[in-house]
UniProtKB/TrEMBL annotation:
GO biological process: DNA recombination; DNA repair
GO molecular function: magnesium ion binding
Pfam families per record: RusA
Protein name as it appears in the record: RusA family crossover junction endodeoxyribonuclease
Cited InterPro entries: Endonuclease_RusA-like, RusA-like_sf
């Protein structure tokens, strides 16, 4: 499972099947916590692809254990998009499709999957 992942603290990422996947272990209701954490990862550890132009699909999943955290998903999405801007895409205005969901899971974490839209199956969604 660890193949191809780059780790730095609580954040890990990889390029896989045409997408960039970013995972942050643990949860907090303070969405402002995520921006510097992810930014620091990309600045210090990431050696993957450079930001690209075009339209992107972004899927954000917050897995929680127990009661769902009291957090506005729109604020979470904004913090995460700001954190990856400049590393995955140039501007968050390039995001043409955004899915943000909260679900019960086996461990607390946030997963982000970014895929460039083209003529493939993501385009029809």
């Amino acid at each position: 499972m660890d193949a191809g992942w780059t780790h730095h603290g609580k954040v890990r990422a990889r390029e896989h099947e045409g997408a960039i996947e970013v995972v942050v272990d643990g949860l907090t209701t303070q969405t402002r916590y995520y921006k510097p954490l992810i930014y620091e990862f990309f600045r210090k550890a990431w050696r993957g692809g450079r930001p690209a132009w075009g339209e992107f699909s972004v899927e954000i999943v917050m897995d929680y254990v127990g009661d769902p955290p009291w957090m506005d998903l729109d604020n979470l999405a904004k913090a995460l998009l700001d954190a990856i801007k400049g590393y995955v895409f140039h501007d968050d205005a390039q995001v043409a499709r955004l899915l943000v969901e909260r679900r019960a899971g086996e461990r607390e974490r946030i997963s982000i999957r970014v895929r460039r839209l083209g003529d493939g199956p993501d385009r029809a969604a």
